[in-house]
Design a protein that fits this description.
Layout lengths: L1 H8 L4 H6 L21 H10 L6 H11 L5 H10 L7 H10 L1
Length: 100
């Protein structure tokens, strides 16, 4: 728990996240959910608090769904239609390439 508390103190601000192309979460870890930036702050925080580098893709997906992450898919798809060049859509674009 001490490590998690230290990690929370090192969270990146919005300016830094934007500079990095929205490729990392505020905790400095790589974004691994395509709709992460379209989720509420509450969902993002819950997901990050449960995130661990030892988790499998399946565990990460379950954690994202448990945090309420599916709710933001519509917002992400709407943003993609309105502006396909939105820098927050990087993981979504990767997902589209895999699907193709």
């Amino acid at each position: 728990m001490i490590e998690l508390e230290k990690e929370k103190k090192f969270w990146l601000g919005k300016d830094e996240l934007k500079r990095l192309g929205w490729k990392v979460m505020p905790n400095g870890r790589a974004v691994d959910q395509p709709n992460f930036w379209f989720a509420s702050e509450k969902v993002q925080n819950e997901y990050m608090s449960n995130w661990s580098p030892t988790m499998t893709d399946e565990q990460l997906a379950f954690s994202w769904v448990s945090a309420g992450g599916l709710e933001s898919f519509k917002a992400m798809e709407r943003a993609a239609k309105e502006n396909p060049h939105d820098s927050r859509l990087g993981e979504w674009r990767n997902m589209q390439k895999v699907a193709a």
